[in-house]
User: Fold this.
Amino acid sequence: MSMSRWSTVTLTAAAVVGLGVLPVMAAPSPGTADAAFVQTAHQGNLPEITAGHDAQKNGQDTCVKDAGAILVRDHTKLDADLSQLAAKGKIQLPDAPSPEQQAASNQVKTMAGSSGYDKAWLAAQEDAHTKTLASIDKQISQGKDADTTAAARKARPVVAMHLEMVRGGTCHTM
Assistant:
């Protein structure tokens, strides 16, 4: 075997063997800040999906109804990705919105059928998406788990677009 061919075989074997010792990207471990982000993001998706359905049913303005449909579509997809990440890391996900989220949702629902519903819904969505965006930015800048941070990066433009749709209590569909 020529020296050049021997070098190629040796380098290839070293690369193959070396792959076995490289760290494998793992899902976030329970109890870490990365796992807390997954749990919080999932818990944020739950009321967004519900609020989207509620807007489709109770919104007065077509724009609010359309924004609700967009929230349902996007948060359902984002949550499916988070659920896979949680399963991979054996992270227990909350099965309901937080009491604060539930209270905000209930407050908006009490206005269903009134002229103030749309404005209240938009304001609640602006608040929720502002908080979510801050959480995503924190994960992107401080996250340790590459998969979790990648999920945050993927979610960021979606959540930012939602925030722009509802900013200022005025509906702006994109």
In short: Residues 28-169 form a domain with the Ferritin fold (CATH 1.20.1260.10). Helices lie at 3-19, 33-58, 62-89, 99-109, 117-142, 146-166. Residues 1-25 have pLDDT under 50 and may be disordered. DSSP finds six helices and no strands in the chain.
